[in-house]
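Crash report, auto-generated. Payload:
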Amino acid sequence: MKKSKAFWGFLVLALVIYAVVQGMISGGMLDLYYQNILIQMCINVMLAVSLHIVIGITGQFSIGHAGFMAVGAYVSAIVTMKLGLPLIVAILLGAVISALAGLLVGIPTLRLKGDYLAIATLGFAEIIRIIFLNVDYVGGAAGMVVMNMTTWTYAFVAVVITILVIANFTNSRHGRGCISIREDEIASDAMGINTTYYKVIAFTIGAFFAGVAGAIYSHNFFIIQPTTFNFLKSFDILIYVVLGGLGSLSGSVIAAIFLTVVSAYLSNFPETRMIIYSLVLIIVMLYRPTGLMGTKEITSLFKFGKKGGSKV
Amino acid sequence: MTEKKTLKRFASVFLTSSLIVGALAGCGSKEEGTSTDSGGSTSDDTSEVIKIGANLELSGAVASYGSSIGKGAELAVEEINAAGGIDGKKIELVKVDNKSENSEATNAAIKLATQDKVAAMIAPATSGNVIATAQIANQYKIPTVTASGTAPNVTENEDGSINDFVFRTCFIDPFQGVVAANFATEELKAKNVAIYADNSSDYAKGLAAAFKEQIEANGGTVVKEEAYVADDVDFKSTLTNIKSANPDFVFIPGYYEEVGLIVKQARELGIDVPLMGADGWDSPTLVELAGKDALNNTFITNHYSSQDPDETIQSFVDAFEAKFSEAPNAFHALGYDTVYYIVDAIKRAGSADGEAIQKALAETTDLSLITGTFSVDEKHNPVKSATVLEYVDGNQQFNSKVNP
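Recovered output after restart:
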């Protein structure tokens, strides 16, 4: 009952945000510059949330997320540009193939822990990148030119679905299984939880939504090149999750939005841009060592006075 | 206990909300700032200032290209403003960083188009990033000139259509192959040539194909065609093959890492004929790898040489050294030229209107700049001379200019 209340609450909130923004766009108040920043926010939120389920919920330290994004981006670009199918098919196919890649990588590597897993996932992302670099069909190092098909609506709907699925997953039996792995893998194993199964599921869902984000990315920025998806991109995504607070869904969302705005704003100061950006990160981590939200969710903050307000 | 918790919650709500408000305020003030800015410029536009945007790689992987172009452009803008600007209107250079990423290049182009409302843009340095801005340029009808994006598909789409608002100051990759072929037949009187190309880069393959076509058109014969791949280190067996074919000239398009070793090993095997490459050779590392002696009797094509005796070039070199206390490289010169190219078009168009400037850019003929005199062809590529440099004891020396 409570859960469904939060579910509908979120949906209503999403609809209101969508209506307001759409109204401002059709009213001419938001030109392409702001629309583009909004789309970018949506992409970054999706990436952050999809990595959150792997790192924040399941506690598996994966730093190869850009690899899944690359799969989604390239597969969807091939579907629209080479096969001429509509964007929605491209997004779904990109996401599914990306999820398959997640499954393929996850089954062997998720037996590893901590640093070892991090290095394995990093290696995977580099392999994906090098494959695209050497396939002439997708343009090799010169990259692949992609038409701009994404609109704010696509990006927003995708982000809402991503958040809904991942929030509901977290609250489900499976989600609790994942959390128990994060808290103590040996203990949950002893309790009869199939840890490998849950880890692979979380990893695959994360890869799926990273694929969606990649597909929207590739159809928004005119060209995709393998260098776009290098390990620095993976670290960018990791920063969103850690800065937002490991284990907090709303934290990842807020951090992704916050850093997108900071980055866009700082492009006015090219010389000092990266210095300020890094300073922002350092200051936030100094004053909020557990991230912006810690492990809390934004909904729990508004439940003052209420007795036993359960976390969403 | 509960009170403490509530307090904590209050504190975190306060922190988060202040953060969000801060972010929004930042966003809002920027909106305000730029809107007054652009509002000011629209009224200024007709009277005082013409804005030229520079969407450059000022940080990230290829920051050295972008910041070099930026410096060249700065110098040019300073000179033009000191000389009275365009019909009394001053030029303002609006620099935006694109982090050497194509998504950021798109963002920067959108920002320049919608927020700063620039009259023209200097596009990013690398071809991929230029492509990321091309559609925005077309959509907002803002003429965009790249200083160093040499890939053919920057101005020409795959289906053969032209990106109307995209231009460039540099020649395209295959052109250097044509120049090398003409130089080989005319200056070096080469008849039997060999080609040894990097098979793993589009750049080298394009150059090799263009060279072969032109040399055959000039009446030469390609006696041997061999290939290597990037990261190879031993080239001796292939070079022995080349030697047995007795060429009187070897064309080696590729990047300096491998070329350095190839030149060294070729000389060791007794291939003492002229060797030639393109701007991919242009690096101090080449001299270290090949050795000064081996590099004698080798040539490269490049955009320009700071040792060119030409007077305008020398005065540019002096002005540049006075401002930045370093010798200008090809990117500096191209950035400088790009501004003059745009300004020339604005002057001829007589207005800062995008479509008028675009037309003027496309009609540019015999414009004399630092990196050569050029006219623009129907694919928006400049038809210009390339400079041939010769290595003498490890130093690049100006040899000649070759016209297309």
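Post-recovery validation: The CA atoms of residues 351 and 357 of chain B lie 7 Å apart.
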